[in-house]
Amino acid sequence: MNTFKRVAAVTATLTLAIGGLAACGSNGGGSDSGDSGDGATIALLLPETKTTRYESFDKPLFEAKVKELCADCKVNYLNADQDAAKQQQQAESALTDGASVLVLDPVDGKAATSIVKSAQSSDVPVVAYDRFIEGADYYISFNNERVGEMQGEALVEATGDKGDILMLNGSPTDPNAAQFKKGAHSVLDKSNLNIVGEYDNPDWSPDNAQKFTSSQFNKIDPGSLAGVYAANDGQAGGVFAAFRAEGGDAVPPITGQDAELAAIQRIVAGQQYMTVYKPIKLEAEQAAELAVNLATGKDVSGTSDFEGVPSYILDPISVTKDNVKDTVVADGFYQVEDICTAEYADACAAAGLS
């Protein structure tokens, strides 16, 4: 069994073991099998659009699963555009409009505790989605500290554990970013790699990542860098753009996260070393199932625990050029033709993807 299939099997087993969730409808699939939710509304509040996963995967996957499980349930989708105050207003509006459940991926994890308290005062449960919120009723995410460890381990391996590196972390207001950073430092700080510049990107912006990296080139020779830790693929793209602006596609190993299509293409082309793939379908569908069960009064017991909150913690997967075919392609996350456009045809052939 290849690595991906082994991890996926473990994840599937974990999901079944900790889920304990009765489907809203019968065992058959499709919206016709969905139980009536008496028009229950589930509010899905996502944090931003600069990271492509939210609009491309989380939203449609969540909505489709809700429709499958509960024909009469409605999803009220709201995106905060990286504005915590806007998200607060959206949450209050959703509650006023009669949401039965809030599924909340917070812009600011600490600020979101006020949303949790407001919802709970109205007897509306809150599912912290992807990012932890203290006091939430449930939490669904991946093992985020392990994500950082995987990135750090990959960078150590790719650099031969020697040389200078830059480190670009996520937003200080994102609770996941702190976990990624902690996991990465737990590996990098024990290695022989030397972090010569570190940056906490306030909104995960690829543009900010490019500007920071370019600013470092004013005092560091780009050719002297052994690698770059980028906490996600958007930032990895910004780092690559900064190197390209210096004169060519030759770059040191760069890490990433989210398995964005552009990142997979860069990996195939040797322009990014790795990404961390988090099977969003598992996360989004688990959240939808939980939300439907909460909205319709079904049993939701049988979860694990994370910092006192009943939780569903899923396994991330490291992706390099060697296992693109066995991970994101095998899982149907992308088709080969999505990755292997004309620009990447030769690289795909060399990687065995054509």
Task: Write a concise synopsis of the structure shown.
By secondary structure, the chain is an alpha/beta fold. The protein is built from 13 helices and 12 strands. Helices cover 42% and strands 18% of the residues.
User: How far apart, in Å, are the first and last alpha carbons?
Assistant: 23 Å
- Assess the beta-strand content as a share of residues: 15-25%
Number of strands: 12
CATH topology of the largest domain: Rossmann fold
Query: From the alpha-carbon coordinates, what is the Rg to the nearest angstrom?
Result: 21 Å
What is the name of the CATH superfamily of the largest domain? Response regulator
What is the structural class?
A: alpha/beta
Subunit arrangement of the protein: single chain
Give, in order, the helices and strands.
Answer: HEHEHEHEEHEHEHEHHEHEEEHHH
CATH architecture field of the largest domain? 3-Layer(aba) Sandwich
The largest sheet, given as strand count, sense and whether it forms a barrel, is: 7 strands, mixed
Number of helices: 13
Query: Ranges with pLDDT <50 over ≥5 residues?
Result: 1-33
Keywords: Signal
Signal peptide: 1-22
Subcellular location: Cell envelope
GO molecular function, one term: carbohydrate binding
